[in-house]
Amino acid sequence: MSQLPITEIDLQAYVDAALPDTRRAEVEAYLAAEPAEAERVRAYLTQKQALRSLFNPVLDEPLPESLSALASPPPTAALDRSDRPFLARWSLQRIAAGLLIALVSGLSGWLVHDRYPPAESLARASPLPRRAAVAHAVFSPDVRRPVEVSAEHEDQLVAWLSKRLGTPVRPPKLGALGYDLIGGRLLPGNVGPVAQFMYQDASGQRLTLYVSTENTSNQDTAFRFAQEGPVNVFYWIDGKFGYALSAGIDKGKLALVATAVYDQIDHK
User: Fold this and answer.
1) Strand partners, 247
2) Residues 17 and 44: beta-carbon distance below 8 Å
3) Contact 228/129 with Cβ under 8 angstroms?
4) How many CB atoms lie within 10 A of CB 55?
5) Which residue, of 124, 204, 224, 250, has the fewest CB within 10 Å?
6) In degrees rounded to 5, what are phi and psi of residue 186?
7) Nearest Cα residue to 100 out of 40, 41, 53
8) What would the pLDDT profile of 137-177 be if each residue is shown by its tens digit?
9) How does DSSP assign the chain, residue by residue?
10) What pLDDT band is residue 265 in, cutting at 50, 70 and 90?
11) Could you give the CA distance from residue 196 to residue 245 in angstroms, rounded to a whole number?
């Protein structure tokens, strides 16, 4: 019997470790013969691991009292096991963990991160660094389409993002630090659009600049640092904008880049 062709569904199931042994072996043979597809799958696996690192701390957080109460049987009578509420017959912590892992496994999981409180107090003070870190973890490993508009069309990129954000926005030049612009994309923010610019150095290391206009009421303009799993983030508020620079590089090196970004901003 001839082998069934490998489909996108098979590849996604492979990334999620959801294939039976026989089919997994067929997919691995296919990837060994298709380097481009193998690189794409490796990017998906990297994204998955990065997202897990961001969200795993949530598994150690205590459940809200309102959910814990659902697991307690009524005090007035001893219920038969079959009559107990469904949530009382299962570990709520396991249910929460399962749902979280399912969200993280999908590339769209980052869209729902605001429903789960961040693990670090610094990130809790502002949603900006967490959103930027998740966006970086999702898009920076992508091999085929890390950006929507490439740096070859920077003028179109700037015009498009400026129009969507409703105010001029332009990527800083970081070539002196070894980082060249790859391009950018439009992202959904909490209440409006957000711009993301992506850079890459000669070694392939990428960093992203997240630019939001949702922080205009915040007057705290100080530089702040946050760690979200493997991603380091420097963020600050300046005039109309909130900026967050994210990368998986050393804090000191990222601080130098963040300073260069700040120096090129039109402070109005």
Assistant:
1) 207, 232
2) no
3) yes
4) 23
5) 204
6) -100, 135
7) 53
8) 989 988 888 999 999 999 999 999 999 999 999 999 999 99
9) -PPPPP-HHHHHHHHTT-S-HHHHHHHHHHHHH-HHHHHHHHHHHHHHHHHHHHHGGGGGSPPPHHHHHHTSPPTTS---GGGS-GGGGS-HHHHHHHHHHHHHHSGGGGGGGGGS--SSHHHHH-SHHHHHHHHHHHHTT-SS-S-SEEGGGHHHHHHHHHHHHTS---PPP-GGGT-EEEEEEEEE-SSSEEEEEEEE-TT--EEEEEEESS-TT------EEEEETTEEEEEEEETTEEEEEEESS-HHHHHHHHHHHHHTS---
10) confident
11) 10
Rounded Cα distance, 237 and 242, in Å: 4
- Which residues lie across from 212 on neighbouring strands? 194, 242
Residues facing 54 on adjacent strands: none
The candidate with the shortest Cα–Cα distance to 171, out of 153, 187, 158, 162, is 158
pLDDT band of residue 215 (cuts 50, 70, 90) is low
Q: How many residues does the chain have?
A: 268
Instruction: Copy the structure tokens of residue 84.
Output: 């107990």
At residue 13, φ and ψ (nearest 5 deg) are: -65, -35
Give percent above pLDDT 90 in the chain: 34
Residue ranges of domains in the chain, CATH in brackets: 8-112 (no CATH), 121-263 (3.30.200.100)
Mean pLDDT value across the chain: 76
Between CA 129 and CA 120 the distance in angstroms is: 11
Q: Enter the tokens of residue 228.
A: 């979200």
Between 132 and 191, whose confidence is greater? Answer: 132
Q: What is the CA radius of gyration of the chain?
A: 22
Compute, in degrees rounded to 10, the torsion defined by CA atoms 37, 39, 147, 235: 150
